[in-house]
Amino acid sequence: MIIFPALISPSLLCVNVGSLFKTRCMMCGHEAANYKSPICAALEGRGAPDPDTHDAQIPVEQLPRCEQRGCNGLLRPAVVWFGETLDADILSFAEKALDSCDLCLVVGTSSVVYPAAMFAPQVAARGVPVAEFNMENTPATERFKFHFHGPCGTTLTPALARHESELN
Ligand SMILES: [Zn+2]
Predict the structure, then answer these.
(1) How many domains does the chain have?
(2) Is 28 within any annotated ligand binding site?
């Protein structure tokens, strides 16, 4: 999951908050790719993305477990959850990029989860153009020079296409 891209000459910065297709062991920390669906038999037919869904009450012993030799720790998605912090090295790198970029694209983020939510407004405060691509306005939209409303799969490509005034 990419939460914040910014163009830095000439490379692209992406702060990655993890992948739902990786697991992390809560005991030994081992991370592994995992594309099983469901991830374990007890989760078959469970986990609908409905906030009114009742607790599935799956016994802990039926939850997915680490397969590292002698571990058997509980597995969780290898993502940064609310309340957890991003890696300090990533934050340090992001700060340097934010201080030196001359264009910032904010693609598909709600701009409500910190610290990422402060990145683009921090750039905009320097007078640097920020373009937000989102399905809806966010709390930060008014602080940005550009807002492209709609699915980023539809809005991003034409916005980044070579303009007719540019030389070939
Ligand atoms: Zn483990």
Answers:
(1) 2
(2) yes
Task: Tell me the residue range of the domain where 26 lies.
Answer: 19-79
CA distance 13 to 7: 6
Residues 97 and 34 in one domain: no
Is pTM, for the whole model, over 0.85?
Answer: no
C-alpha of residue 62 to centroid of ligand 1, in Å:
16
Angle of CA points 128, 136, 157, to nearest 5°: 65
Is 66 flagged in the annotation as binding?
yes
Q: Looking at the structure, do residues 115 and 93 belong to the same domain, yes or no?
A: yes
Rounded to the nearest integer, the mean pLDDT of the chain is 85
How many CA atoms does the CB half-sphere of 155 hold within 13 Å? Answer: 17
